[in-house]
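INFO batch 0412 | record 1 of 1 | parsing
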Amino acid sequence: MAENGRPSQLEFQESIDAESLETPASDFQDPEYEFDEDGLDLAAKEELDIEAELEGEVRSGETNSHQTPVLHWDIGTELSRNSSEGCAPFRSGSITPDGLIDEDFEEEIGQPIDEDEAEAGDYHDIARHGIIEVAGDDVYGRKVIVFSACKLPPKTELNHQRLFEFMKMTLDQYVEMDYVIVYFHHGMTSKNKPKLSWMVQVYRELDRKYKKNLKALYLVHPTNFIRILWNIFKPIISAKFGRKVMYVNYLHELKAHLHFDQLKVPPLVLQYNAKILSTQKPTYPYEGDVQRNNSSLKTQQFGVSLSLIKANYGQVIPPAVQQTVEFLRVHALDSEGIFRRTANASTLKQVQRRLNDGETIDFTEFHDVTTAAVTLKTFLRELSEPILTFELYEPIIRLHGQEKEEQILQAKRMLTEELPEDNYTVLKYILDLLSEVAAHSDKNKMTTTNLAICFGPNLIWPKGQASLNTMGHVNTFALLLLDNFDELFNSGTS
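INFO prediction complete | emitting tokens
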């Protein structure tokens, strides 16, 4: 222990390392709670705000009624000190192999697109706060669920049991496919922090169904409160789940794994991030392994527009799309869970680099059809404008609630009259493959509903982040395109 009473840099770093934690959970236990005989269930006692103490909100020298010493140090100073000494207090978010390679999957995948659930149904009182949102796919083709602590209202104004139910309802729409959670911790205060017993309930009741396909949990801007929670939860957290937890000190560290420009970060989080960046001046870690938005590169395909690719390659169907579709049509129609599973991250980056260099890829060399499947989804998601265009986003959302015949009529009009001809051609080329995949759903378990959930957010998105309400409408429109493919695309249009 350092002379000033704070833990030394080495002690502090080791205390939050999931693989090296040796301190008994009871030593870091919130005095408000106590473990039962099994060390699992927590019973609430009088309320005490740990984070307030750790953040220095309690005066130095005070003790609580449980005779627990009050810690009092400036976390900002501690972060700066550790950063200046070359060691961040929390390890940054580098994905482990466990979070990159699909481990296994269940036979039945995908959830029906339930219009009522997509609109949050009876949970409008919870949904209106925007605490939980969906941000499309990450760079590995996995759904992104965002939880923002700063959007939690005062705990006296929020029914946390209903929040938990709403959380499960949201996850249920995506839990049968690979997904990640981004948790913005900044903004959790003594006024809105849920009770520790509720947090334990959340972890315990989110069973294997929810944990199996969770590939990464990004904890953004962690504080000492997170460190203490980790110690408390350690007895009930599996080592496998622990390896999925990634600490993210600065927002730019997310750029290696997420489409950051499509991630709606709360203003309070942006302000806090700017403050710690100006104070600590960390080394920018993201080197941009995949070249993006570099229009000077004549062979660039990822992160640019369809028109630029056409101008550079002299063909409407981008080579990346043509090569992946042709491979999948031959090798993947019977592959169970195709488009739902994730592939190795380093392999994906390698493939994108080679495609950006103008190379023709023989996907058989990877011995894994998911590489081509995720590459196709990634290409669509990284277009500078979605294939269905920003302009059509609002008209597509407004189709919700109309009669099916009217939806088909309006969709056909938008596709033939308002969608650029090249976009139409590429979209038809891709949907034709997806229709073939759906025709083999008895073997690959990919129905049109499952395919719509996988591809909807990659075909259309707004400028910014789609709300949870509209995400269901996006998926429903993708389902409309797939279920009515012949009528929409093969009736004399081109």
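INFO post-check: The CA atoms of residues 3 and 9 lie 12 Å apart.
INFO record closed
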